[in-house]
Structures are given as structure tokens and as C-alpha cells.
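Service request form, structural biology core

Requester: graduate student, group of Dr. S.
Request type: structure prediction, single chain
Budget code: on file
Notes: please return the result as C-alpha cells.

Sequence provided:
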Amino acid sequence: MAASEHAVACRREVRRHDYDRYLCALLAPAQAREAVLVLTAFNLELARVCEMVSEPLIGEIRLQWWRDALDGIFAGAPPAHFVAEPLSEAVRRFALSRDLIESLIDGRATDLDNEPPPDIAALSDYAEQTSSTLVRLSLEVLGAKPGEADEAARRIGIAWAYTGLLRSVPFHARQRRLYLPVDICRQHGLDPHALLEGRRPDGLCDTVSVLAAEARGHLTAARALTLRCPRPLRPALLPAVLADFYLDLLERAGFDPYRLVHDRPGPGAMLRLAWAAFRCQI
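Core staff response, request fulfilled:
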């Protein structure tokens, strides 16, 4: 498969499996769009590891394959893989940071642990390593200097991760995976393991409400930071718009993730996203 065909395959995978980020990527400048989609496809490959393996050790082996592949990816000699080859081209063209890509891989190792995070600090660390790192890589594609817009990326990444994890509580429960922090669950009398039994235990909506408020707080802080962010970098921060949209839906559902209807963003969400991109504001 030729390099351009690999990029098309990445685009197709993102459109099919991460439509939210696909929409955000379409609003990036043309010269950066393909690389942003490739990075998103790479993130999808890593996220799938946990879903595809039956034992954590097998997942660790798969993640180690990607760690080992980075030598070739950064040397311009990637392994034959539909994501690795265009990722290598993106690394070359945009001088992407290896430590960020390694952080993305390391963060996904947390998915292999079936125990929920002990506290919100642990959940925040996971969100930073995964979601925030992906925003930072997108900033690099758009030409960010080291550390530029870093705090905005950190906060938007955390907010996006929290929002996605809250919306996905039923999905993760079916997979016997838990991401609700134990300390917050206890504060609201929620037994998180009851979710694994297919029940909707008391305290779930209160717990979700607390985490949704945390996400809102990060978005509020990020908006203030974005005003100081160079306009050419702001397309990387567009996931904040969809995070806000999904938090609205969650609030209207009484913070009960089991009442949400999971679907692709409708015209209203797309309009909010396009308007934010036009104004270069989140």
C-alpha cells in the first residue's frame, strides 16, 4: 500500500471510529489536516489494544511493539503498518516530539489495569498522558513552539477525556472496566463494582455530576488561556467545543450516562464547531 493510501486508510478509520476528532481535524489548515488525522488514527490503534486482548500481558506486548517501532518511525524507516508509515512522515515533516508519542503509548498501559483510579488525581494523570498529549501533538503540527499553549492543551485534554469517560460508563461497564475515581464514588455512596453487574447503583448521577463539574472548570480555564494563544494554533483546541456540547447533553440527562443516546454529532454540534473555528475561539 502506497504512503498516500495509508493516509487515506487512517482518515477512513478516524471517520468511522472517532467522528468527533474527525470533525475537528477537518477544520485544521489543509497542510496540517493529514498529520492530525494520522495522529488520531495512531491514538485509536493504542486505545484498541485494551479492547482486543484477553490478558493484560498480551496488551503490554502490543504496546511494547509500538515502543520498539518508534526507532524506525523516527529514523524514517518505519515498520510496514498503515499507521506507522504516515506517522513517520508526520514526524519528519513536523518534527514531532518523541517524548509526547511515548507518553501516549505509556498512558494507554493504564487501560490494561481493570481497577478504577483511586482518586481524581490519578484520573487526571491518565487524561493528561492520553488526551492532553494528543492535543499537544496537534499543536506541534500547527507550528507551536515548545511549551506554547501547553496549559490550554492540558486542560482541554482533561476535559475531553472526562467527558468521554462519563459518556462511556455503560460501554466500559460491559467490558468490566472502570474509570470513576474510587474516592469520589465513596463520597457519594457509589459502589463502582456494582456497575460491572449491570446495575445502576445509587450515587452514580451524583458522582458523574462532580466529574462533569471538574470538566467544566477545565474548559472555563482553557477559554481564558486560549485568548492568549496564537490564532494559527487554535484549531488544535476545538475538541473543547464538543466537550462543552456533550456536557450539556449529560446535564440534560440528569447526569445519568445510561439515559444518553450515543450518536454522531448532529447539525447543532457541527454548527457550534464551525462557528468556533471561524471565530478562532472555543
